[in-house]
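Quick one, tokens below:
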């Protein structure tokens, strides 16, 4: 039997403004994402859907999850390949395309733009090449149905 890992989170709606969901416009989309032993994440809907722009929305969290998994696997593969990374930043972007019939949409792509600093010039090509291998092992990339593009940039100090 395959090994499994369970991930439990709780969602608590905090947006009842006194009348519940008696109308689409009378409740807040505010909620918290909770997990045992962790600080809550203040979340809401995207502002386009009456959400609070100061809180994380599900679409941002999904893009962040893709970027996090990519980074963690990249660091792992670099360590195994002898590529020493000393800094990693990513400006990830997700695109959601709305359904022409209205009412729904889906993420249709995520683009990762990792900027990586390595210790030696000789490591740059290998560091850039390792990004292409991550889709084979990243748990999140293997779980989504949209393409994940990479625009990596490796450099030395």
């Amino acid at each position: 039997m395959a090994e499994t890992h369970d991930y439990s989170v709780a969602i608590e709606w905090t947006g009842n403004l006194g009348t519940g969901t008696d109308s689409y416009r009378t409740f807040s989309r505010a909620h918290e994402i909770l997990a045992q032993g962790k600080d809550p994440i203040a979340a809401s809907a995207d502002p386009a859907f009456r959400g609070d722009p100061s809180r994380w929305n599900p679409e941002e969290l999904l893009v962040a999850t893709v970027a996090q998994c990519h980074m963690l696997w990249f660091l792992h593969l670099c360590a195994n390949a002898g590529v020493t990374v000393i800094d990693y930043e990513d400006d990830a972007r997700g695109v959601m395309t709305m359904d022409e019939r209205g009412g729904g949409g889906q993420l249709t792509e995520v683009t990762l733009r990792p900027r990586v600093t390595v210790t030696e010039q000789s490591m740059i090509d290998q560091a850039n090449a390792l990004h292409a291998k991550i889709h084979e092992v990243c748990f999140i990339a293997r779980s989504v149905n949209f393409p994940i593009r990479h625009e990596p940039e490796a450099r030395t100090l």
